[in-house]
Write a structure and sequence with these properties.
Layout (H helix, E strand, L loop, with lengths): L1 H17 L15 E6 L1 H4 L12 H4 L3 H4 L28 E3 L7 H5 L2 E7 L2 E7 L14 E7 L2 H4 L1 H10 L4 H31 L4 E5 L10 E5 L2 E5 L1 H27 L4 E4 L2 H4 L39 H20 L9 E6 L2 E6 L5 E10 L2 E8 L3 E5 L6 E10 L2 E2 L7 E5 L2
Parallel strand pairs: 1-2, 1-5, 5-6, 6-9
Antiparallel strand pairs: 3-4, 7-8, 10-11, 11-14, 12-13, 12-15, 15-16, 15-17
Helix pairs in contact: 1-7, 7-8, 7-9, 8-9
Length: 423
């Protein structure tokens, strides 16, 4: 048990680094096209050293890129954009602006981030600027896209992992707390972060929020820890993966809600790109547990578990770039599709017609009426509109539309509801 505890503590240290249209914009005709990359370690490239360009220890601990663990091999630098030769990494400071930081939370997008280091006998702290300050380097209205991964640290995903491995019988309780925290403030923190980014970047910029992948082989695996081998069971991995799916689902729904309210914001799912390539599979896109302090780690203990652990390797960065590039390409071509039905209404005497957008992959739709404190099903259809007759003049009706996708009905969000006053 002590061996497992030490291993899971390493999991925690590694995970802290992780979690440490509306009309799509047409291709710009201006000379400079710009992508800005914000977010946490899954955007900064933790796990794919080197970080920054400084070579000596004394310079590294004063280098914001090293402190943030920004890698030139991060997925943001692998993106491409029409009008820009090569990849974004070839044009840092002109077409690509990189501000992501390992360990970041929503608060570090809009506020400062003080990080500690213990590197080659040098110890201290360094304060990174708020990530949105990067937009001060860009002419107003010139940003085309903003990419980010954010939310893992806010939800306490590292602690969820520890609970799954150390105290699986209390995992339901820990997850209940996580989702309560999400409802109480994290959801609002994320939404406020998106709004702050929109304000700093400009409404013309499409914000792409990427999700998180499953981290580990779903069949379970064995980790060699010093002279001991520890088996991690499939049941424990499933609990972690389910938590990842839940977080992705919540973020995706929030992005849809923001878009329905007028934001140019999109979600990029990544789980499928990593499927079959989790840590401890035959061809992993995620680093396994990396034993011992590595050259670029910020802590001083030689026997520690590296912060590179459970982060995408370069193949994983390519998988991330592929998932986000799909969204960019659809936005560039004007073919991006909404994932939530957003209703509009036409009112005539005695009738209300509700129309909504087609949702990719939807088999059917269900119109709901809010009455007596809850939603009740009115009609189910394969079409994207329904007319309700016999409504009373002067009465307000609240409707919601759900889509049946991948064997389940979408949740009722603010974006999928509408209130109409009958004539």
């Amino acid at each position: 048990m002590k061996t497992l505890k030490r291993l899971v503590t390493g999991f925690l240290a590694a995970a802290v680094m992780l979690t440490g249209a509306v009309t799509a914009s047409a291709a710009s005709t201006k000379d400079t096209r710009i992508i800005v990359s914000l977010g946490d370690s899954y955007s900064s490239g933790e796990g794919i050293p080197p970080f920054g360009s400084s070579t000596t220890a004394a310079d590294k601990v004063k280098d914001p890129d090293w402190i943030a663990h920004r890698s030139d091999l991060a997925w943001g630098g692998k993106l491409t954009l029409s009008g820009v030769d090569g990849t974004m990494a070839d044009h840092r400071g002109t077409n690509w602006f990189f501000a992501a930081a390992s360990g970041a939370t929503t608060g570090n997008i809009t506020g400062e981030f003080t990080k500690s280091y213990n590197y080659n006998d040098l110890t201290g702290t360094f304060t990174l600027e708020p990530q949105i300050n990067i937009f001060k380097q860009i002419k107003s209205g010139d940003t085309d896209y903003v990419t980010m991964t954010i939310g893992g640290n806010d939800i306490g995903f590292a602690d969820i992992m520890v609970t799954a491995f150390m105290k699986p019988d209390t995992l339901d309780e820990r997850l209940e707390k996580a989702w309560k925290d999400y409802a109480d403030h994290i959801r609002d923190d994320l939404k406020n972060t998106y709004k702050a980014v929109e304000k700093a970047a400009g409404k013309q910029a499409a914000i792409i929020v990427a999700g998180y992948p499953h981290l580990m082989n779903p069949d379970g695996f064995t980790v060699s820890y010093l002279v001991t081998k520890v088996k991690v069971k499939a049941a424990s991995v499933k609990k972690v993966n389910d938590a990842t799916d839940k977080l992705n689902s919540e973020i995706s729904a929030l992005v849809d809600e923001c878009r329905a309210e007028g934001m140019n914001i999109w979600f990029a799912p990544v789980v499928d790109e990593f499927s079959g390539h989790e840590a401890y599979t035959k061809k992993p896109y995620i680093n396994g547990i990396v034993m011992g302090r590595q050259e670029e780690d910020m802590f001083g203990t030689p026997q520690g578990i590296s912060g590179y652990s459970l982060h995408p390797n370069e193949d994983g960065a390519k998988a991330y770039a592929k998932a986000v590039q799909k969204v960019i390409d659809k936005l560039e071509s004007g073919t991006a599709e909404s994932t939530v039905p957003t209703p509009t209404a036409t009112v005539k005497t005695g009738k209300i017609t509700i129309k909504w957008n087609a949702v990719s992959g939807a088999e059917k739709y269900r119109l709901m009426l809010y009455t007596d404190g809850k939603y009740k099903s009115l009609k189910t259809t394969t079409k994207t509109s329904l007319t309700i007759s016999g409504v009373k003049s002067g009465t307000k009706y609240k409707y919601a539309v759900r889509a049946y996708v991948n064997g389940k009905w979408t949740a009722i969000e603010k974006a999928s509801t509408i209130t109409v006053k009958a004539k």
